[in-house]
Design a protein that fits this description.
The chain has helices at about 1-20, 150-165, 170-175, 195-210, 225-245, 270-280, and strands spanning about 25-35, 40-50, 55-60, 70-80, 85-95, 105-110, 115-120, 130-135, 185, 215-220, 255-260, 280-285. With about 290 residues, it is of the alpha+beta class. The protein has an eight-stranded antiparallel beta barrel. A four-stranded mixed β-sheet has the order 9-12-10-11. The protein folds into two domains: about 20-165, Quinohemoprotein amine dehydrogenase alpha subunit, domain 2 (Lipocalin, Beta Barrel); about 180-285, 60s Ribosomal Protein L30, Chain: A. Strand 1 (about 25-35) and strand 2 (about 40-50) form a beta hairpin. Helices cover about 30% and strands about 30% of the residues.
Amino acid sequence: MRKIFAFTVLILFSAKLNAQFKFSGQWQGIYLKNDSIWQNGQPIYFDFEIINNLLDGKCRTEKYNTNDFQVFKLGGKLENKKTLTINQKSITKGSSKSTGSCFLNFKMEYNFTTGYLEGTYDSKCPEEKGKLILYKSKFDFNEKPDPLQDHSWFDWFVNDLKEGLSSPEQRLIELRNFKFDPIYFDYDKYEIKAEYQDYLRKMIKMVKSHSDLRIKITGHTDADGSDKYNEKLSQNRAKALIRFFEENGLEKSRVVIDFKGEKQPVDSNKTPAGKQKNRRVDFAFI
């Protein structure tokens, strides 16, 4: 019964998000022709507004690290509050010519998990089809010959997709909602249990999602043994986390460690259950 209730709440919450989400605005990303590697794609920008489910705006395509570009007038519509169909209607400016028979038609949906607008495109030209992925952004849309932005953002975006990171907008939500939990160790041990590894990888992903973020690791022990021994044991527990983070792609410079030995218990050291809670590592973003 609880599972049914939770599933119903999830459906209602998703429906509410769909109803509230604002598709209008500026988006940038990559469109990729008949390929599976985003790095082989090209920059694309959208600037559109949706009124009464009808879309009006412009699209700009560029070639990576060149001044080659085209600007198109767009038409389209929003269907079922979640699916965008967008069509290039005419070319308004460009460094090369385009024929109407090869204008692109896009079909996209917003991914509420990643924050990306994802979909496919095709045209009357058989070779002009592929996929695209966009994130919401802000830029000065224009029809000038120079690229809208330095294409270094393209490289960052490709790397974000490779790392499985969400959109910049979605990452802020993920950071606000991230909940820290300690991980626990067996008596006199500092090996990381397998049950914690997925959680730790989520933490790594969170740090990678924010270039100014580091993580602080603080090791603790129960009260068994001498102060000196427990301090060393708590240090080994913190170092074990550093090794795990490095082995899973997080640079050592993004991690800070501390170790408290038995000095900061969270429970009584007079019971086995209390001691287990004290044999832990705590985390914090800094």
